[in-house]
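Example 3.2
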Amino acid sequence: MPAYDQTRARIEDYFDRTATKTWERLTSDAPVSRIRETVRAGRDRMRALMLSRLPEDLRGARILDAGCGAGPATIEMAQRGAQVVAVDISPQLIDIAKRRLPTDLHKQVQFRAGDMFDPELGQFDAIIAMDSMIYYTADDIGTHLAALESRVSGPIVFTVAPRTPALMAMWYAGKAFPRSDRSPVMIPHAHPALARAAKDKGVRSTLRPVDRVTSGFYISEAMELRA
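Structure, written as tokens:
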């Protein structure tokens, strides 16, 4: 999958070369700009929404945190009793997540730097992927949902950038004016087209929209694949 591999390489380069310090502050209690405060608040709301799709008691469950970043969702799922496999493309973000993990949860979390879709990660009871699939095409997302479907007994909860006029304008601007130091461009998706792409790739379960979170400069939509 050359398109997927190229996008993944750009994301890894961006987070390890440009954005690590920004994301370390954004995902902490450190003071940030007013704009980033809206992003932080939006991400907090989205994380709570996604985790609400999982049982409160996760003892005995093995969960993949795909694109775990600095690890806030990893911590909460481990606190609920889950065994968490926390994967991120950025080794530097994995290092931050390791440092932030409370000592009493170390035995419940396995960290990996690399491809969040690696089949060698094994089988899971649930998968969450918060804002880690927002850079990929519908075909790429459909392909990976089809592969993940056979490896999970419960829901796959993930986010996409919704196809709104504002985000579409940003998307086209990003294509017209590429800069080597800018973040990878999000690809907006509408649920019907994404559901069709998933079905075309062999996904059997139903892909449903959950809810949308808008907070200033943060806008993201949660989707759920569940049999």
